[in-house]
Design brief:
heterotrimer; B: alpha/beta; 7-stranded mixed beta sheet; C: alpha/beta; Rossmann fold; 2 domains
């Protein structure tokens, strides 16, 4: 099996963190992974995106011709990438700031108001983790436990409170999307 | 009982200099070698000669040396010193090497305060390539690439290396000397010795600019050449100590 | 052993430090800045190691030449435009037989070009790049794991042959993260006699490449040429993938080889028997191995992120014994495996 996912949004929305934490989680689970970020002038104040590939065999190309998953945190990202998504693929969109919806009828789309949920939790910076909660639940690529452990190991020696709010945020996103 | 009044310094090889009659390089080579002997640093000295007339310096200095591409001697010397901080590392560079093609490397090594010594030969002309205009060529001075004389609006002005480098916070000791008479030669040796002492004491970047004759490319005889250093070159490039923070830095080190 | 998820730039940095890199100098340029940053953080926290942010790439390469002369394991890194500046120093290091590792994380060119992944520096890397008769060993990794391994090997090659060794990757390799395991580096074997450490009470040494007597210079050139022959004989590396039953073989290296692998999977799913020949050493080019393939395979397809540079080496290797098609995407354009699949499928069916 091989999955490819694109995460995209404004610089500062924690889009690259979404990708690295997923890649790290998949690595901990024993999968082959690649993580390919956008870089350089492209992300200075503009949009950032990354592609994560996860497979149970060697990954040939880190580029996604047809991503199975697309996670968009802002509207420009939706327009840029929605047509690349594979048929029967899945799109997650941050409905707090994206009023439009995907024009694709052959994909499954989840609108997650992760900005609003973050506000309710009292920390607007965790919108990306909320989205990851929804993503992990629907993709099932790794278990929540493995994902959260990876997230903590990436965040490293940062304050203890961060791990706690991240767990809360993840749970909120996880619970938001129904089974 | 025989009294030795003059001998070849141990830090020089048994070789006859290839430099032109009247050229300042031979004098400065000897002065540097004498300083090595006196400071007893021949065994820990590593030198980087330039591209230019002194490119063959390793034929004369009996110390470890490594060649640098044109202008890059201070970059190499700084790196060698960082790898081997207890060795005495110096570059030996002409005006084209240091002040034209290698000005960036020289200036930044100085600005970093790399604990190296730079022996800078300023003869206001490119010697090895046959007498072309140098960054230090005087206004109206005729060279093979300024046949009508260096023109200020077309060619720019003589570059004052000691003045510029003494402005850099990273430098410790900057002196300009000349090798035009027994008195100035003695003074030059003192400056060279002080520069290496500065390095030995770990006090930072030292540079000795030496006004030096190039009779061949100046198209003068040896006597006129040294006279021209005193009468003309020294007016544009006044000798003197431009910066000496050795005492202050020593004090700061002792109190820290 | 634990895998670590790291970007290619960081992998090179970590591998070099584990391999005992003692001196690094570099100048910021995208897309390799993370390597310079990694070195700044980790070299200075390692007792006695040196990191210098140089004032230019010219200075950086000459710094590592100086540090190599002093006996240190050395590395510098840059990206395409910066590599042009380094050529003077690389020629000098090759001439003076100074070991060192030089990393080029290629970007789009010519000129300032852009910062996207490209492979337009193949000629510069494999033909010497600077002036004079010399070669540099050029290693072209295609995965972060290979980056880790080859970075360590690069130091050993440099010491063994006393020559600069280049790691030629691109923006995608530098930026991409993959899990890696760092192997145990081999202890350094580099004789003291080649190091300048001060003459002590003994004979002084000098390291130089200025040989005014043409007979001396000619002998030095032939000495280097003989060394390059030995390297060519002993050190070629390549990977063959799905070539056993192939009707057509793609020749690609680094990032383009990865894209090609993705395309090959799709082509094979559609019944097209396509394989991959991936040179890992670009110089020496694995021409014997490639030529051997042409005994049974008559169609080759060169794919590069350039207008066709390695293509020359493939032609030289195949010597007209097989048909060669080419597809190139210069200037930082990177096709997806799906796009490449379409291009190859058209050629495959035409040749059929």
């Amino acid at each position: 099996m091989i999955f490819k996912a694109i995460f995209s949004g404004f610089g500062g929305q924690g889009v690259l963190m979404m990708g690295t934490s997923l890649a790290h989680g998949a690595m901990s689970n024993g999968y082959h992974v690649t993580f390919l970020p956008s870089y350089g002038a492209e992300i200075r104040g503009g949009t950032a995106n990354c592609t994560v590939a996860i497979a149970d065999e060697e990954i040939a190309s880190p580029v996604a011709s047809e991503p199975d998953y697309l996670v968009v945190m802002n509207a420009p990202s939706l327009f840029s990438f929605q047509n690349k998504v594979a048929a029967k693929g899945v799109i997650f969109l941050n409905s707090s700031i994206i009023s439009e919806r995907s024009s694709r009828s052959d994909v499954q789309a989840y609108a997650v108001p992760c900005g609003d949920i973050a506000q309710d939790l009292g920390n607007t910076r965790v919108a990306n983790i909320i989205m990851m909660g929804a993503f992990i639940k629907k993709s099932g690529i790794v278990t929540p436990d493995i994902y959260l452990k990876s997230l903590e190991s990436i965040m490293g020696g940062r304050k203890k409170g961060v791990a706690e709010i991240n767990r809360k945020a993840f749970a909120a996103g996880f619970d938001y999307v129904k089974d | 009982m025989v009294k030795i009044v003059s001998k070849k310094p141990n830090s020089l090889k048994e070789k006859i200099f290839h430099y032109c009659p009247g050229c300042g390089h031979s004098i400065v080579h000897r002065l540097v070698a004498e300083v090595f002997d006196e400071l007893d640093i021949r065994g820990i000295a590593i030198g980087v000669p330039p591209a230019g007339c002194a490119v063959l310096a390793y034929n004369y200095f009996d110390i470890d040396m490594v060649e640098a591409p044109h202008g890059r001697a201070t970059a190499m010397a700084a790196a060698i010193k960082r790898v081997l901080p207890d060795r005495m590392v110096f570059s030996y560079q002409g005006d084209g090497d240091l002040a034209a093609i290698g000005i960036a490397e020289s200036l930044h090594a100085a600005n970093r305060g790399d604990n190296i010594t730079v022996i800078f030969i300023n003869n206001a002309v490119y010697g090895m390539t046959g007498g072309q205009m140098a960054p230090t060529t005087l206004l109206n001075q005729r060279t093979t690439t300024s046949p009508a004389g260096r023109h200020k609006t077309l060619d720019g002005y003589p570059l004052k290396v000691s003045e510029i480098f003494s402005q850099l916070q990273g430098t410790t000791y900057i002196e300009r000397c000349a090798v035009s008479s027994p008195a100035t030669v003695n003074k030059t040796k003192k400056a060279i010795k002080k520069a290496f002492q500065c390095q030995k004491d770990g006090l930072g970047f030292s540079l000795v600019e030496i006004l030096s004759a190039c009779p061949t490319n100046w198209k003068m005889n040896s006597i006129d050449s040294v006279q021209w250093i005193d009468d003309v070159l020294c007016k544009e490039y006044p000798p003197g100590v431009f910066k000496d923070e050795t005492a202050a830095r020593k004090l700061a080190e002792a109190s820290s | 052993m634990n895998k670590t998820l790291m970007s290619g730039n960081h992998v090179i940095g970590e591998a070099s430090i584990r391999a005992g890199c003692h001196f690094y100098a570099g100048y910021p340029i995208t897309p390799q800045n993370e390597l310079t940053e990694y070195m700044s953080e980790h070299m200075r926290s390692n007792e006695g190691r040196v990191f210098i942010q140089a004032e230019s790439e010219i200075s950086a390469i000459n710094m590592i030449a100086g540090a190599a002369a002093a006996g240190a394991r050395v590395m510098t890194s840059s990206s395409s435009p910066g590599m042009s500046l380094k050529q003077e120093g690389i020629s000098s290091m090759a001439a003076c037989e100074l070991p060192g590792v030089i990393v080029n994380i290629m970007r789009g060119g010519p000129g300032l070009g852009n910062i996207r992944p490209a492979q337009g520096d193949y000629f510069q890397a494999t033909r010497g790049g600077g002036h004079g008769d010399y070669r540099t060993i050029v290693l072209a990794p295609a995965t972060c794991q290979e980056l880790a391994d080859l970075t360590m090997d690069a130091f050993d090659f440099a010491d063994k042959y006393r020559t600069p060794v280049m790691i030629l990757a691109d923006g995608m390799m530098g930026q991409m993260m993959e899990p890696v395991i760092f192997k145990k580096p081999t202890p350094r074997q580099y004789p003291e006699k080649f190091m300048l450490r001060g003459a002590g009470t003994g004979k002084s040494k000098f390291i130089r490449a200025l040989l005014l007597d043409p007979i001396d210079a000619e002998e030095h050139n032939w000495k280097l040429a003989r060394k390059y022959e030995v390297i060519t004989k002993n050190e070629t590396l390549c990977e063959e993938y799905n070539v056993e039953d192939a009707d057509m073989v793609i020749v690609a290296y680094g990032t383009s080889a990865r894209i090609a692998k993705g395309a090959i999977k799709r082509l094979r799913d559609n019944g097209m028997k396509v394989g991959l020949f991936r040179p890992i050493t670009l110089w020496p080019f694995p021409e014997q191995k490639l030529r051997a393939l042409s005994a049974k395979i008559k169609n080759f397809f060169v794919f590069e992120l350039s207008t066709g540079q390695m293509l020359d080496d493939v032609r030289l290797a195949l010597q007209g014994y097989a048909h060669i098609d080419f597809h190139g995407r210069p200037g930082g354009a990177v096709p997806t495996p799906a796009e490449l699949t379409n291009v190859i499928a058209r050629v495959y069916n035409k040749n059929d």
